[in-house]
Design brief:
The protein has twelve helices and two strands. The protein has 320 residues and is mainly alpha-helical. The chain has one domain.
């Protein structure tokens, strides 16, 4: 494992993260409810502030170079996670998940994402370290993904064709109705899955598919191949995804230019990986970060200044 920090730093990071998550689900959100936009925005701001606070520690103890790599990976992954929000909306709508149960599904979805993304980051780093030419494949794949994102039309996810859902239906019965916020219940005296477990499996497997795109992008900006930097930036980005979903789920269509901005960023990162491999040189991290921030900022600004026809930008903030 290519890491610049001792084992206790890994332990401390996870202790803080899981402590805050336990406080979130076990205390503040113990009862199923629908977070208001105001509360969701506060939580989103909290996760961003916590992540930026952690980045200060990266700068202080690992140096400016890795600190800039961390910021670049965090901003890139956070932006790519916007696609997940569209999937959440589709899956929750498809299964008619009551609003008050969505918070729990996203919570456990994030826990599962920790495990999957950790495995993919460690494996990807190890493969690049041992077989440097794989960087060419990652770069080419990102360029292909960028082209598909920009010109492939609107992606469609069919939850009913999800392999994990089909597997669940084969191994145990799935009830038609929800049983509160339970994932498992009893039907006719037998253990059965509720639709909420089916929703969780669909979201987990969909996140895995998205990670196939985002992990190479993360490794593309973390040129030091430091697994601690790549992993913690990735985790900090998806930590705030749940609150971000509740904060912006009603205005996602406003950012219709964002996918083009993301495609440019992915193409840039892919081209950078290929260039670095072929020339045995490194593109400055400050340049990468500048390009990422400028392109994403411009795409969001254009989305606001040039909304879709018939769109109504104003959004009311719910009161407690």
């Amino acid at each position: 494992m290519n890491s610049s920090v001792p084992p206790w730093a890994w332990i401390a990071f996870h202790v803080v993260v899981f402590s805050v998550l336990a406080l979130d689900l076990g205390v503040l959100n113990r009862k199923s409810h629908v977070p208001t936009v105001k509360v969701a925005l506060c939580w989103t701001a909290f996760w961003i502030a916590l992540s930026l606070g952690f980045s200060v520690l990266i700068f202080q103890y690992l140096g400016q170079s890795k600190g800039l790599e961390w910021i670049s990976a965090y901003v890139l992954e956070y932006s790519l996670s916007v696609d997940n929000i569209f999937v959440f909306l589709l899956v929750f709508g498809y299964f008619a998940v009551p609003d008050e149960y969505q918070h729990k599904v996203l919570f456990w979805g994030i826990i599962g994402a920790f495990v999957m993304r950790a495995g993919m980051i460690f494996a990807g780093t190890a493969i690049i370290e041992k077989f440097a030419w794989v960087e060419l494949l990652f770069g080419a794949f990102l360029i292909y993904t960028a082209f598909k994102l920009a010109f492939g039309g609107e992606g469609h996810v069919d939850p009913d064709k999800n392999p994990a859902l089909n597997f669940l239906r084969r191994v145990m019965p799935v009830t038609k109705d929800y049983d509160g916020s339970k994932f498992l219940t009893f039907e006719n005296g037998k253990r059965a899955a509720t639709p909420l477990l089916a929703v969780l499996l669909v979201i987990e497997t969909t996140d895995l598919i998205f990670a196939v795109d985002s992990i190479p992008a993360t490794l593309g900006v973390v040129k030091s191949r430091d697994t601690f930097v790549a992993y913690t930036a990735n985790i900090c980005a998806i930590l705030g995804l749940r609150s971000l979903y509740f904060a912006v789920r009603g205005i996602m269509d406003l950012f219709h230019y964002l996918k083009y901005g993301l495609s440019i960023v992915l193409g840039f990162v892919g081209a950078k990986m290929i260039y670095q491999y072929l020339t045995h040189s490194h593109v400055p991290t400050t340049l990468s970060l500048g390009v990422i921030l400028a392109v994403l900022g411009l795409s969001i600004l254009l989305s606001i200044l040039r909304p879709k026809k018939g769109e109504t930008p104003p959004v009311e903030i719910e009161k407690e």
